[in-house]
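Appendix B, record 7
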Amino acid sequence: MKQQLETLGSLKCRLVDDLPEGAKPSLVVILCHGYGASGSDLVPIGEELLDQIPALQDRVQFVFPEAPLSLDKLGMPGGRAWWPIDMVKLQLANATGRYREMRQECPEGLVNAREKLLQVVEAVKTRTGLPLSKIVLGGFSQGAMLTTDSALHLDENVAGLIAMSGTLLHEPEWQKRAPLHSGLRVLQSHGTQDPLLPFAAAEWLRDLLKSAKMKVEFIPFRGGHQIPMEVFEGLATFLQGLMAETSA
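Structure tokens (predicted):
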């Protein structure tokens, strides 16, 4: 298995694959980490999927962009963020039941983060020759929010969207953009006991995507803000299904 570090667009990215020397991937999966994690946080997921799923080994490349903001000065050495999060405000909203109001907001820095991620997408298209229909966007937590927003702002559908423990935000814009992506395949997961991003907010997101006629597979699990084995297994099945579709 190969892992290399490259700059795509303006972001440092880790590329993981098991492709034969000189071969190009049939499918690229771009996965974005969550707030406070390092740029390598999700790399083990890609490595494990390639190790366990033979159908992906010589055909899929994983790309793990590193968020642009350092959190070193906030006491989180090596931690990165796609945009600043007021954790006190978030915790207060959860405690007082006012989280519903936050779904209307467009976080400061989201648009800039989207632009940087879409530059990564363009760089992947250029270096592989693949169309958007063979590129998957996904992530965990803040990375899931970013990739959902980015997928909705593209002019055509990506191969699939993976939203692990994300949430609904910037609702007016997402409601406007979602119907333009009817038929998009989505894998969404969320813990019913998530203390950070309420499960109800995941249901709001699921319902918005479904109402736009996207093909949403929703995996609720008993747990918190995490990626348990049942989500990993669902992700493996989801990617194998996308591989079958792109090969047809």
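Remarks on this record: The chain has nine helices and ten strands. The chain has a mean pLDDT of 92.
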